[in-house]
Write a structure and sequence with these properties.
By secondary structure, the chain is an alpha/beta fold. It has helices spanning 43-51, 72-76, 94-102, 111-117, 133-145, 163-178, 190-196, 214-220, 228-235; strands at 3-14, 17-28, 32-36, 58-63, 66-67, 79-82, 151-155, 182-186, 199-204, 207-212. A 6-stranded mixed β-sheet has the order 6-7-8-3-9-10, with helices on both faces. Helix 5 runs parallel beside helix 6 (163-178). It is globular and about 50 Å long. It starts with a strand and ends in a 5-residue tail after the last helix. Bound molecules: adenosine-5'-triphosphate.
């Protein structure tokens, strides 16, 4: 199995906070890998290190076989990034945001096709800030897809969305999964982690405490039955 991301003993401190404390992880081509953990566990920092937008204090990061430290620009052309909700593009229209992002890349996917797949046509002339959360997230997913990336990073893509909007966003994400894209995401929703992720990485206080298929994680509890919430409580919460 080809690995598209390889993290080896990554560490990142913010003053005395050990945000990432020795994480090693390999991500396979075409898999959907979910990262779960408590607030402040280090999920975003880990994702940002993989994206090349944050530099680890130590350890190595390889993305698509390239060293992130030395091939940042080459990697940026091949990955798509959807960050946590940001006000950055609020003041422009959906169409303008798409065109702006499109100008950043050499290789581009057909913008019309992305717009149609994500159902954005009726919203093109609306300001991003005036869209509902679900449509804002679809817009930012569209922005992450513009360069037809091999790896798509989604930082809490469904946070704050109602159940229907979450399901609809997953239907969109799954279309790209079917094309064989590798997808990495963080989430606080255990149901969607279980339903949509091939493997789940659990981070606690900057350390990777488990990484496996959802059903294996549930089996590992040894209860016979169980849910991802039980897995979360067992692995991700420090006081248990
Ligand atoms: N730029 C920064 N400066 C200082 N501390 C930071 C910075 N970014 C993150 N931290 C700290 O590093 C730790 C890990 O943060 P991170 O955002 O990676 O966690 P997370 O698991 O994504 O949390 P959440 O679920 O709340 O998004 C936290 O203690 C956080 O306060």
């Amino acid at each position: 199995m080809e690995h598209v991301i390889e993290l080896t003993d990554i560490k990142k401190n913010y003053k005395d906070v050990k945000a990432v404390d020795g994480i090693s992880l390999k991500v396979k081509k075409g898999e959907v890998l979910g990262i779960i953990g408590a607030n402040g566990a280090g999920k975003s920092t880990t994702l940002e290190i993989m994206m090349g937008i944050r530099k680890p204090d130590s350890g190595t990061v390889k993305v698509l076989g390239l060293d992130v430290e030395h091939a940042t620009n080459e990697i940026k052309q091949k990955i798509g990034i959807q960050l946590q909700q940001t006000a950055l593009y609020d003041r422009i229209k959906v169409k303008e945001a798409l065109e702006l992002f499109s100008s950043y890349y050499e290789k581009k996917r057909d913008l019309k096709e992305i717009i149609e797949t994500l159902g954005l046509t009726p919203y093109l002339n609306k300001y991003v800030k005036n869209l509902s959360g679900g449509w804002q997230q679809r817009t930012s997913l569209a922005l992450a897809l513009i360069n037809d990336p091999e790896i798509i990073f989604l930082d809490e893509p469904t946070t704050g969305l109602d159940p229907k909007a979450r399901l609809e966003l997953w239907a969109c994400i799954n279309r790209y999964r079917e094309e064989g894209k590798t997808i990495l995401l963080s989430t606080h929703y255990m149901d969607e982690a279980q339903r949509h992720c091939d493997r789940i990485a659990i981070i606690k206080k900057g350390k990777l405490v488990a990484c496996d298929k959802p059903e294996h994680l549930i089996e590992s509890l040894g209860h016979g039955i169980g849910s991802m919430e039980d897995v979360y409580l067992q692995y991700a919460v420090s006081s248990l």
